[in-house]
Design goal:
The complex is a heterodimer of chains A (330) and B (265). With 330 residues, chain A is an alpha/beta fold. Chain A folds into 2 domains: 238 residues, P-loop containing nucleotide triphosphate hydrolases (Rossmann fold); 65 residues, 2-Layer Sandwich (Alpha-Beta Plaits), CATH 3.30.70.100. Chain A has 12 helices and 15 strands. Chain A has a 6-stranded mixed beta sheet, with helices on both faces. In chain A, strands 1, 2, 3, 5 and 6 form a 5-stranded antiparallel beta sheet that branches. In chain A, strands 13-14-12-15 form a 4-stranded antiparallel beta sheet, with helices on one face. In chain A, helix 7 links the parallel strand 8 and strand 9. In chain A, helix 5 packs across helix 6. The N terminus of chain A is likely disordered. Chain B has one domain. Helix content of chain B is 74%, strand content 0%. Chain B contains 9 helices and no strands. The mean pLDDT of chain B is 92. At the A-B interface, helix 3 and helix 4 of A face helix 1 and helix 4 of B.
């Protein structure tokens, strides 16, 4: 279900987490009020997206959140209903050809002419791109490990091989920016691991990766920055570390009696919320300064404190926290 | 090194030709409808002549050149519909059109390249088929009058014009509809069924001149007589014929380009 995000909250979080640290000139993707409507339905709603250079940027949201539509607008596959876009610093659609010459993209699943070989498919794209693209074919095939299968027809390729061929196709542009739409879909664990390796290698080479996904865990493992989108709106964006730290401080407490511990902690005024997590208890506190006091409370109540440490919030925790707040605000 | 790497200005067209010529089924069907149809036609006529010279004349001569031209025009139009629709909608149906658009290359450049690539693929087949007709009409002329060089050239150009015209229609419609099967069905119904029916309804009068099949009929070399006749002949001026053909071709190609440059890829 789409959540009616309070505008002040949304904008406040975005500004707080992002604009302080990032120089506007260093943005490879920048959108302002970007909107796409299909009839009465708004698929992308006033999106303000800012992707810094040289990072793996996750565009995270559930299916139907408008991720692919936003990517299609950036790539000129569909027009925007309203708003502005800049790609590699160039305004769109005016600078589209110049910008896209240094962008590689896989939109939805990678598609090819099945009756042609992998190499022939790359030859066609190289012919369309022109310039040095043709000379990059062999290197691209080698990089994704498809040299041995380059002369086989693509219809005999597995999904993982098609994904790799899609990456090779992107590399023909020697891209500054790669836009990958749900690249992990359908891949087996080995394929996912391999793909993650590609992404990290590209980032180390100074390229920027924009990766859309509905898999929180994958984005957290692969990306440095993230924007969380819901119902066409960006609800929060920033670095993964910032997002993790931006939530309420949480401590993990382990005792011999987690039920009694949870009961004790929930009575303390500094504790906002307590959740049992197996043998441990997670307590969301207003201020970490209250933690020694919590320790004393437990010890004085006869609890043996085996562990007491700040909990490392996952992206999933933050995502759930944000969406819960939005639901409560609605 | 592939030809795709040699000349940047030709590489785009070569890429589009590559997509077509690597489709074995398309190559086989196109060869059958052009070279095969002509070989079979002249082969049968010559075999009949050899088997029974008293009842069947030689396979060559002006009259049989007319029959060859008829085969080239009718079967060539079918080949044109198939190749044109494939060139027009092949990228879309394979799902790779968006991957070409995201290179930043203009959609119009991609459109023009596909248009030319299809012609580069198709016309050699048609020319080869007609070459068989021209050679057979001379070699197997026997007692029949031998066609002159100018008649051979004129008839060949007429056959190429027919095929090119239907190719342009097929290409434009395929880009407009985004579907190969709908395009082939629509065009063959129009070319092989609707045009002869409408052309034979005399009460339609001058309206029949708007049919491209009627206009093309008007360009048939007179020396071929009725041998290349595809339906009733309706007298039209050359200017009117040219206008009708140009309007149809330009409308189809322009409609396809309009749709291609505006569609959500």
């Amino acid at each position: 279900m789409c959540l009616p995000a309070p505008r002040a909250y949304r904008q406040g979080m975005t500004t707080q987490l992002h604009e302080v640290l990032l120089d506007r000139d260093d943005m490879v993707v920048e959108t302002r009020g970007l909107t796409k409507r299909f009839g009465g339905r708004t698929a992308v709603d006033s999106v303000e997206l800012r992707v810094p250079r040289g990072v793996a940027f996750g565009y995270l949201g559930p299916n139907g959140a408008g991720k692919t539509t936003l990517i299609r607008m950036l790539l000129g596959l569909t027009s925007a209903s309203a708003g502005e876009m800049r790609l590699l610093g160039l305004p769109l659609p005016e600078g589209r050809a110049q910008a896209l010459a240094r962008v590689g993209a896989i939109v939805e699943d990678p598609r090819f002419h099945g009756h042609l070989t992998g190499r022939e498919n790359l030859e066609i794209v190289a012919a369309v791109r022109g310039g040095d693209a043709y000379r990059r074919i062999e290197g691209s095939l080698e990089r994704v490990g498809l040299t041995a299968r380059a002369r086989d027809r693509v219809k005999t390729y597995s999904l993982g091989m098609r994904q790799r061929l899609g990456i090779a196709r992107c590399l023909l542009a020697d891209p500054q920016l790669l836009i990958l739409d749900e690249p992990m879909n359908g891949l087996d664990p080995a394929g996912i691991l391999e793909f993650r390796g590609f992404v990290r290698d590209f980032v180390e080479e100074g390229r920027t990766i924009v990766l859309s996904s509905h898999l929180l865990d994958e984005v957290e493992k692969t990306c440095d920055h993230v924007a969380i989108v819901d119902c066409g709106r960006v609800v929060i964006q920033g670095s993964i570390a910032e997002l993790r730290e931006s939530g309420d401080p949480t401590v993990l407490v382990e005792t011999r009696d987690p039920v009694a511990t949870a009961g004790l902690l929930s009575t303390h005024p500094a504790v906002a919320r307590v959740t049992a997590d197996g043998p441990a208890v997670q307590a969301v506190v207003a201020d970490l300064a209250a933690v020694p006091e919590l320790n004393r409370l437990l010890v004085s109540a006869g609890q043996d404190v085996l562990r007491l440490e700040p909990a490392r919030a996952s992206l999933e925790d933050r995502f759930l926290e944000i969406t819960t707040r939005l639901e409560n605000a609605a | 090194m592939s030809t795709l790497a040699l000349n940047p200005s030709r590489s785009l067209i070569s890429a589009d030709v590559l997509k077509l010529r690597r489709r074995r089924g398309l190559v086989a069907v196109t060869a059958l409808l052009t070279i095969g149809a002509m070989t079979i036609t002249y082969g049968i006529i010559e075999l009949l002549h050899v088997a029974s010279p008293a009842n069947h004349g030689p396979a060559g001569g002006i009259v049989n050149l007319g029959h060859g031209a008829w085969v080239a025009a009718v079967f060539g139009a079918v080949a044109a519909a198939i190749v044109g629709s494939m060139a027009g909608s092949g990228d879309l149906e394979a799902g790779v059109y968006r991957d070409l658009v995201v290179t930043g290359r203009s959609r119009l450049a991609l459109y023009r390249s596909r248009l030319r690539g299809g012609l580069v693929f198709l016309l050699p087949f048609v020319a080869a088929g007609y070459t068989i007709a021209g050679l057979a009409s001379v070699i197997f002329a026997g007692s029949n009058p031998v066609p002159s060089a100018s008649l051979l050239v004129t008839t060949g150009l007429w056959a190429l014009l027919q095929v090119t015209f239907y190719y342009l229609l097929a290409f434009g419609i395929a880009c407009l509809l985004g579907s190969r099967s709908y395009t082939i069905g629509t065009l063959l119904a129009f070319r092989l069924a609707l045009t002869p029916i409408l052309a034979s309804i005399s009460t339609l009068g001058i309206v029949r001149e708007l049919l491209p099949g009627v206009a093309l009929q008007g360009l048939t070399p007179a020396a071929l007589g009725n041998a290349a006749q595809q339906g009733p002949t309706i007298p039209m001026s050359t200017a009117a014929i040219a206008a009708v053909l140009i309007i149809w071709a330009v409308a189809a190609v322009a409609a396809g380009a309009w749709r291609d440059t505006r569609r959500d890829a």
